[in-house]
Amino acid sequence: MSDKGAEVSDEIDKDVSVLELNGRLDAGSARRVLTGVKELLARNRVKIILDMSGVEFIDSAGVGILLASYRAVDAKGGTLKMCAIQHQVESILSLTRLGEFFEVFSDRASAEKDFD
Description:
- The structure is a single chain.
- By secondary structure, this protein is α/β, with parallel strands linked by helices.
- The protein has a single domain, classed as Transcription Regulator spoIIAA.
- It contains four helices and five strands.
- It has helices spanning 30-42, 60-75, 87-96, 108-115; strands spanning 7-13, 16-25, 47-58, 79-83, 103-105.
- Strands 1-2-3-4-5 form a five-stranded mixed sheet, with helices on both faces.
- Strand 3, helix 2 and strand 4 (79-83) form a beta-alpha-beta unit.
- Helix 1 packs parallel to helix 2 (60-75).
- The N and C termini lie far apart (27 Å).
């Protein structure tokens, strides 16, 4: 899925799915993230990584969608990890304590390896 704002593309490797997020994760674009997660869950893809390397900005709507995504995956017995978080986004996640819900990795390879 892609559109201006938060661009969401999913890549599937073995049994791990990666949602690559790009742009701003705000009220105008955040809903697409949850839609992408739910589409993966509908296909029984329950090992998901959110690659945040392209996310430049996140607001309260973005934080809310990340939490809703976490809850949706958790309800299906899955695992949602995050990787490659930029500094400005990391500070927001730290302030909101959202990082406590997610396993966070410095890069995609580390997150994928952790699923093994």
